[in-house]
Amino acid sequence: MAIQVNKQLVEDGKVGAMIEWLASIGETENGGVTRLLYSSAWLEAQLELKSMMDQMKFHTYFDSVGNLFGRLPGTEGNNKTILTGSHIDTVVDGGKYDGAYGIIASLLAALRLLHKYGNPKKTVEVVSLCEEEGSRFPLTFWGSRNISGAYNLTKVENIKDGEGISFLDAMTQVGFDPKLYSSPVRTDIERFVEIHIEQGMILERNQNQIGIVTHIVGQRRYTICIKGESNHAGTTPMNFRKDAVSTASHLISFLTEKAKHTDPMLVATVGRLNVKPNVPNVVAGEVEFSLDIRHHEEKIIDQYCQSIFTEFKRISDVLNIAIDILQWMDVKPVKMDEEMCEWASEIAEKKQFRFQKMISGAGHDAQVFGGACPTSLLFVPSRGGISHSPKEYTNLEDLETGIELLTEVLYKLAY
Ligand SMILES: [Zn+2]
Fold first, then answer.
1. How many angstroms separate the alpha carbon of residue 104 from the centre of ligand 1?
2. Per-residue pLDDT averaged across 248-274, rounded?
3. CA–centroid distance, residue 199 to ligand 1 (Å)
């Protein structure tokens, strides 16, 4: 039955219908999608996509972690591959477009080129990457980082999901037996192109149809722990307190103001706050808060961190309160390939698309590939900037404009 549906979809080649079809696999009652890595919905989606690629006359195969590839062999036979695609996994109750649009757009673009011009000179492969979001297991980019060689099975040996299922068992359950693992590292990828929804509101605000990403931001995350002294709220005079909440509020105001004045593109977020003992009539003895910092230039992040942590030290000394700073994430900023940015801009200009160059504040598979080969990341608008939600939406015209641009970019790269 499903294969029948695919046949009609393949013949029509309509992006809207294909988005709905893929979103029906793992559909939630809120109208969202949940396709966690190695779940039954995940497996069904990958197998359905494979069947669709087969019908489109792509040569299909899985690597040993479950990345799915559809290959159009090149006529030049130089063993170089132009790779395009995005990720199949979602967050819990995510949207229909995040990841899925990039796979469908890549498929349709490659298919249109195949129908119009026959096989490419350089091999083109469409990839449905197995995992990017980190929604089931505490790691991200499992798909692309296996291809780049940054990850292998040793990375997940001791990892479990929220229900206590081990990563390796989950893999085995959907038919990717770790005992049969052979390295998915690819050395033949000449260039990678990903198209994705923006997940922000810049394009919509500027009434643009296309974003050409120049950089993907770097991200640092910290846990800041303030250790004061818990005491009676009625009997402890203000001057004798070591109040962790009051100290935290000072630090947070400082880092927020400093972020505003360091660079317009810098963002710093305190999203989580734990207070101990968290009782109304007790001076708090301990506060722990998270800090997420992003910018596309490492030196700006360095400069910002140095200035706020100097102030943290000063406050710690003045108030005689311990402030511990624990860093647990450091993702470097990645620059997209300049030449590919220019090519995409020239095409967009020729086609009279409304486009702009921009920075991606969110992480994408393109940042993993960007460290290994010339890479390009293209955006289409997200309505209201909403993503990771059933409310995620991009209109058909914008989806189609993205595919048109991607088609031309792939033509330039592979034909
Ligand atoms: Zn995504």
1. 13
2. 97
3. 9
Distance of CA 72 to the CA centre of its chain: 26
Find the 335 Cα to ligand 1 centroid distance in Å.
18
Centre of ligand 1 from the C-alpha of residue 132, in Å: 7
| Residue 78 vs residue 363, higher pLDDT | 363
- The helix/strand/coil state of 246 is helix
Q: How far, in Å, is the centroid of ligand 1 from the Cα of 73?
A: 27
In angstroms, the CA 301 to CA 327 distance is 13
pLDDT at 10: 86
Find the farthest-apart pair of alpha carbons in the chain and give their distance in angstroms, rounded: 83
Distance 379 CA to ligand 1 centre (A): 11
Q: Scanning the structure block, which residue is given the tokens 């793992």? A: 26
What residues does the ion ligand 1 have nearby, CB within 5 Å?
98-99
* Long-range contacts formed by 20-24: CB under 8 A, 24+ apart: 20/96, 22/48, 22/49, 22/96, 22/100, 22/103, 22/104, 23/96, 23/100
**Which of 104, 88, 71 shows the shortest CA–CA distance to 26?**
88
* Token code pair at residue 328: 């647990």
Q: What is the pLDDT of residue 4?
A: 58
As a dihedral over the C-alpha atoms of residue 361, residue 363, residue 366, residue 369, rounded to 10 degrees, the angle is 130
101 CB burial (10 A radius; 0-12, 13-18, 19+): buried
Rounded average pLDDT over 107-129:
97
Centre of ligand 1 to C-alpha 241, Å, is 47
Domains of the chain: residue spans and CATH: 2-217+333-414 (3.40.630.10), 218-331 (3.30.70.360)
Q: How much is the average pLDDT of 250-272? A: 97
Which DSSP string corresponds to 97-108? Answer: STTHHHHHHHHH
Instruction: Provide the sign of the torsion angle of the four alpha carbons 160, 177, 80, 109, taken in this order.
Output: negative
pLDDT reported for residue 1: 47
CA of 196 to the centre of ligand 1 (A): 7
**Residue 133 alpha carbon to ligand 1 centre in Å:** 7
Peptide bond into 277 cis (omega under 30): yes
- In single-letter form, the type of residue at position 81 comes to T
How many Cα atoms occupy the beta-carbon half-sphere of 255 within 13 Å? 25
Distance from residue 251's CA to the centre of ligand 1 (Å): 33
Give the mean pLDDT of the chain.
96
pLDDT at 382 exceeding the cut of 60: yes
The mean pLDDT of 262-271, rounded to a whole number, is 96
Q: Does the pLDDT of residue 157 top 50, yes or no?
A: yes
